[in-house]
Amino acid sequence: MTTAIRAEGLHKAYAGKAALDGLELRVDAGTVLALLGPNGAGKTTTVRILTTLSRPDAGRAEVGGFDVAREPRRVRPIIGVTGQHSAVDGRLTGRENLVLIGRLHRLPRAEAAARADELLHRLGLATVADRLAHTYSGGTCRRIDLAAGLINRAPVLFLDEPTTGLDPRSRAELWALVEELVRDGTTVLLTTQYLDEADRLADRVAVVDHGRIVAEGAAADLKRRAGADLLSVRVECGADVPVAAAALERMAVAITSADVAAREVCVAARDGARTLTEVVRRLDDADVTVVGVEVHRPSLDDVFLSLTGSGAGR
């Protein structure tokens, strides 16, 4: 598969403090990489370098096969960018903002206008398109900003916390749009503070801490690395809880709790789905009636805590 984004040994410091410390990154064409990590981990610095807004102190990076430091004019036409903070001009209407960005991307006037109309309808902005942007709510400004990042149909898209300030419906609409773009071959690098967003959109997740990638892989793989699944088994009779616990201990799994009052036994297992079948069989052999079983898998929150010692940030 063709590599759309590549970073090798990126270093960047501000006022003597390292923001990036040898960061390595690769994003295959037509996929979504979610860049996650605590505040100050280096995510936005990485995006700024990859989008030619900042130069690395050391290392190199390519987007679409072009060196971002040596060939920025080759990189800019093939990328779309939505930053953390809105760049909407309040003195223009929403439509005028989009047409202006299209013209700056060297789209012919008619094409810029047509593309602006398409995006305004797609993002539910048609009814406010001709109002001055300074009258918009924060969420509406954010959607105009997102539309501006999409106007040039760039094959590589950088979304730096794109759904901050959006309501749940708008977030869902953006997710659907990103999925559609990826199906059409767009490559997306996404930073987000919403872990469900990474779970929903990303083919791969890269966790950044102290300017380095500390873990990378599919979200499911990272969750498995974060810890065992937890199986919660409820039995019909509280008196059966010790019997159930004894039966499950013989499976060499870890019993995390056995609560007679709640009629529940909890088991930690590396492969919850596979262990579940054996748990039910063992309890049936022990004449224990099971009335409910749940499998709780580690979340991306658990991944952050295990890898960085903190929650997700920007």
What would you say this structure looks like, in words?
The protein is α/β, with parallel strands linked by helices. It has two domains: 3-224, P-loop containing nucleotide triphosphate hydrolases (Rossmann fold); 228-297, Alpha-Beta Plaits. It has helices at 43-50, 72-75, 94-104, 109-122, 138-150, 168-183, 195-201, 219-226, 241-249, 272-285, 300-308, and strands at residues 3-14, 17-28, 32-36, 58-63, 66-67, 79-82, 156-160, 187-191, 204-209, 212-217, 229-235, 254-259, 264-269, 290-296. It has a six-stranded mixed β-sheet with strand order 6-7-8-3-9-10, sandwiched between helices. A hairpin with a 2-residue loop joins strand 4 (58-63) and strand 5 (66-67). Helix 3 crosses helix 4 and helix 3 (94-104) runs parallel beside helix 5 (138-150).
Strand order of the largest sheet: 6-7-8-3-9-10
pLDDT < 50 runs, ≥5 residues = none
Q: What fraction of residues sit in β-strands? A: 25-35%
- Major sheet summary line: 6 strands, mixed
Quaternary state of the chains: single chain
CATH architecture of the largest domain: 3-Layer(aba) Sandwich
The CATH superfamily of the largest domain is known as: P-loop containing nucleotide triphosphate hydrolases
SSE ordering: EEEHEEHEHHHEHEHEEHEHEEHEH
Count of β-strands: 14
What is the number of independent domains?
2
Specify the number of helices.
11
* Helix/strand structural class: alpha/beta
Mean pLDDT across every amino acid position: 87
* Helix amount: 25-40%
The name CATH uses for the topology of the largest domain is Rossmann fold
